[in-house]
Amino acid sequence: MTLSNSAPAPAAGPASGPATEVVLEAVGLTKHFPVRRKLRDLFTREHAAVHAVDDVNLVLRRGHVTALVGESGSGKSTVARLLAQLYPRTGGDILLHGDAVTVKGGRRFRAYARRVQMIFQDPFASLNPVHTVRYHLTRALKIHGNAGRTADDLERALADLLGRVSLTPPERYLEKFPHELSGGQRQRVAIARALGANPEALLADEPVSMLDVSIRLGVLNLLRDLKERLNLAILYITHDIASARYFADETMVMYAGRMVEGGESETVTQNPAHPYTRLLIESAPDPDRISGLTADTGDRGNGEPPSLINPPAGCRFNPRCPNVMPRCTVDLPPRIEIGDRPGHWAACWLYDPATVAAQQPGSAAAATEEAAR
Ligand SMILES: Nc1ncnc2c1ncn2[C@@H]1O[C@H](COP(=O)(O)OP(=O)(O)OP(=O)(O)O)[C@@H](O)[C@H]1O
Ligand SMILES: [Mg+2]
């Protein structure tokens, strides 16, 4: 087990090698939203802020899906919007192929969006109800310079886009309005529109959570197929850790604006290290769930996420943590390698070598604890 500071996971992680080139990277990404208070407070108090995202490090690799999992309000969408450069950030860097990029609209933003596209949760809201599928896709192709030169080129590009998302034959869909499509078909059109830019990275913010359960798998399989065929780097945001296990190569867990655990999806979901990840898995309706994790949680673990205006000191999960120790309420835990699989880490003092040593049978601390029982 090794302690590290909060630097991003090294490239030699669960998905290393030349085939897994890093496309997009967040380093120390931070976003605080100012809170507007009553007028008189402006003169008397410090400016309060929602600490939506703090010191987030994340790597998206070519041909890989990275899941970002966490409960509502943990900052997942804010991370995606920051990566898409839709918000200015409070701190940190976004690296595209290793180069720090900051864009604020205009031509540079379009050039960035050509390479990094976003898919939103609600395809009904993201498609304009007064325009047809043809309009949405043509616009995307033209904005990003992929419409070709002739009308035939455009038709071919449109058919190709619809084919990629399995909406065939194209003439059945091109003249349809969003309300004439099913939820799954709408999300496929939204995905096709994103592909119109021919991007390298897709940021998918809960792309299936608004869809009927019966069609979720189809859309996830489509994204997986696109990842493989187009060698896309995909960020898959979800609150459903079971789907991350199924769909993502790597899983990162976020709690109250901070990353708490990361590693190969299989390891994070089958061998969760952070008490918060365990809680998420316990509450997920996964039939393959590992048993025995529910022991000793008592009443803790339930409860609410903390206020992000005054987040708890130390580990933000400490007020809910079944394993809380005095140190957790004071010191922020760094990323600590768990050591079971390469690249598996948790930001939790339970894995601090000193804590682990104290828990070994025969240690003085273990003996004291035993006597106290
Ligand atoms: N534009 C904004 N202004 C102020 N606060 C914001 C803004 N956007 C998000 N927040 C706050 O930041 C925190 C994180 O929000 P975010 O939408 O990123 O969470 P999320 O993990 O995507 O949640 P959900 O699962 O519900 O989509 C929340 O406390 C939210 O209220
Ligand atoms: Mg969200």
From TrEMBL:
Regions annotated as coiled coil: none
A GO term, aspect molecular function: ATP binding
Keyword ATP-binding attributed: yes
Ranges where the record places region Disordered: 286-312
InterPro entries referenced in this protein's UniProt entry, alphabetically: AAA+_ATPase, ABC_transp_ATP-bind, ABC_transporter-like_ATP-bd, ABC_transporter-like_CS, Oligopep_ABC_C, P-loop_NTPase
Alphabetized Pfam families for the sequence: ABC_tran (PF00005), oligo_HPY (PF08352)
GO biological process, alphabetically ordered: peptide transport; transmembrane transport
Domain of life: Bacteria
Assigned keywords, A-Z: ATP-binding, Nucleotide-binding, Transport
ABC transporter domain sequence ranges: 37-281
Keyword presence, Transport: yes
NCBIfam families associated with the record: oligo_HPY
Protein name per UniProt: Dipeptide/oligopeptide/nickel ABC transporter ATP-binding protein
Organism lineage: Bacteria, Bacillati, Actinomycetota, Actinomycetes, Micromonosporales
